[in-house]
Design brief:
single chain; alpha+beta; 17% helix; globular
Length: 165
């Protein structure tokens, strides 16, 4: 079966785990957000038509936090296909790790609010489940690229179809 053979809507996204020293930049989605409202997540969002994934990552981080990145900053950590069964959507997600030396002043957007959290405390928070799933892998610099296909329902992991590192 091919993705285009399904009735699912396909969404292509880029997201970034931004780390400064021992802190991670998390993004609390506005309660009125179209996608996954109210969740504590990481900066990221859709890839626009005629935009590459790296440019989308850089744009989304700037829009949601004010942080200006260059193409040298994000490093790919995972490529994932999430089949959201309840939403009839398939999300193609490229996750990046961005390590910065100095925290910047956070600029909040209409989509939500960003905040720095100690990395050791992040897994104790009520994170958006896919972000929690990739947290450990994405924040370890030498962990390689993870390739994953999984099924989700109501933001909960139902099944990992395939995963390779």
């Amino acid at each position: 079966m091919h993705l285009e053979d399904t009735e699912n809507k396909i969404r292509i996204t880029a997201e970034a785990f931004v780390i400064c020293n021992n802190e991670i930049l998390l993004f609390k989605r506005d309660i009125n957000s179209k996608f996954f409202p109210g969740y504590l997540s990481i900066p990221g969002g859709r890839v626009n038509i005629n935009e590459d994934i790296m440019s989308a990552c850089i744009r989304e981080v700037k829009e949601e936090t004010g942080l200006v990145l260059t193409e040298k900053d994000p490093k790919i950590k995972y490529i994932a296909i999430h089949n959201h069964l309840d939403r009839q959507e398939t999300w193609y997600i490229t996750g990046f790790l961005v390590k910065i030396e100095n925290k910047h002043e956070i600029v909040n957007s209409v989509e939500g609010n960003a905040q720095w959290i100690k990395l050791e405390d992040a897994d104790k928070l009520d994170l958006f489940p896919p972000v929690a799933y990739y947290l450990k892998h994405a924040t370890v610099e030498n962990s390689g690229i993870l390739y994953s296909v999984s099924e989700w329902e109501n933001t909960k992991l139902v099944r990992v179809v395939m995963e390779k590192n």
